[in-house]
Specification:
This is DUF2249 domain-containing protein. The chain is built from 10 helices and 4 strands, in the order βαβαββαααααααα. The protein is of the alpha+beta class. The chain folds into 2 domains: 93 residues, Translation Initiation Factor IF3 (2-Layer Sandwich), CATH 3.30.110; 95 residues. Strands 1-2-4-3 form a 4-stranded mixed β-sheet, with helices on one face. A hairpin with a 2-residue loop joins strand 3 and strand 4. Helix 6 packs parallel to helix 9, helix 6 runs antiparallel to helix 10 and helix 9 runs antiparallel to helix 10. It is elongated and about 60 Å long.
Length: 227
C-alpha cells in the first residue's frame, strides 16, 4: 500500500512523544505498536529522525513516513497495513543515541545519521557480522566491555557460528597478552556471554533457546551491559 492511501489519516493517530526520554524506550514503544490494529496508526514524536525504529516497525507490518516539523522535532507516522510478528529478531537497538539530543539536538541528528551510515548503508563492503566482530575487538581494545558484549550477542543472534568467537578470543590472547586476558577479559560480561553460548551448545540446546538466554542475561536488564 502506498503512503498516499493513508496519509490523510495521520491526524487520528495516537501520538507518542518520546523526546527527552532517557534510556531504552524502544521496548515500551514496540509493545504499544503491537496493540495497534490493521488500518490504524501511531505518531512517534522525537527530537531526531528515529531511523532505528523503522526496521522494527516494518517487521510488525507498518508503513511509515517522517516529517521534520521544526528544529529538534520529527513526527514519524506509522500505519499498520497488516498484523504480523516481527520477521527477524533485531536485538539491542542503539538506545544510547537517545542521550545525544540531551546534549544538543543537532548532535542527536548527526549521531543517528552516522549510525545509519555505518550499520545500514547498502554500500558497505564487509558483511554485517564481520563488522560486528571488528567493532567487538575495537571495543575491547578501548576498554568498552559493554559495547563488546552487545556486539557479540548481536553477532550470534544474527547467525554467526560460535567458532568465529573462538578465533576472536584466541587473537585477543595473542594481541592483549595472557595476563591482560586473564585479569580483564576472562572475568568480564563479554566472556560470560561467550561461555554461555559454548556451554549451551555443548548441552545441545537449540539456537533459538540460546538466543533467548543471551537476551535475558546480557540485554538491557544487565547493569554491566545496559547503556
Amino acid at each position: 500500500m502506498s503512503v498516499t492511501n493513508w496519509k490523510d489519516k495521520v491526524s487520528s493517530f495516537k501520538q507518542i512523544d518520546v523526546r527527552g526520554i532517557q534510556g531504552n524506550f524502544f521496548l515500551g514503544l514496540k509493545k504499544q505498536a503491537m496493540d495497534v490494529a490493521a488500518g490504524e496508526g501511531i505518531t512517534v514524536i522525537q527530537s531526531f529522525d528515529p531511523i532505528p525504529l523503522y526496521e522494527v516497525m516494518e517487521g510488525l507490518g507498518f508503513e511509515y513516513y517522517t516529517e521534520k516539523k521544526a528544529e529538534g522535532e520529527y513526527h514519524a507516522y506509522f500505519y499498520r497495513v497488516e498484523v504480523k510478528q516481527e520477521e527477524k529478531d533485531i536485538p539491542m537497538r542503539p538506545a544510547a543515541l537517545t542521550n545525544m539530543p540531551l546534549i544538543d539536538e543537532k548532535l542527536g541528528d548527526i549521531a543517528v545519521s552516522f549510525w545509519d551510515l555505518t550499520w545500514n548503508d547498502e554500500h558497505r563492503y564487509l558483511p554485517y557480522e564481520t563488522r560486528l566482530l571488528l567493532s567487538l575487538t575495537n571495543a575491547v581494545g578501548a576498554g568498552r566491555m559493554r559495547q563488546a558484549t552487545r556486539e557479540l550477542v548481536k553477532a550470534y543472534i544474527h547467525g554467526l557460528d560460535s567458532a568465529a568467537f573462538d578465533d576472536v578470543f584466541e587473537l585477543l590472547v595473542w594481541n592483549q597478552g595472557i595476563g591482560y586476558f586473564s585479569s580483564e577479559i576472562g572475568p568480564s560480561t563479554l566472556f560470560a556471554a561467550y561461555k554461555t553460548i559454548k556451554n549451551m551448545e555443548k548441552q545441545n540446546k537449540a539456537r533459538g533457546e540460546i538466543c533467548e538466554t543471551l537476551k535475558e542475561k546480557f540485554g538491557e536488564k544487565n547493569p554491566d551491559v545496559k547503556v
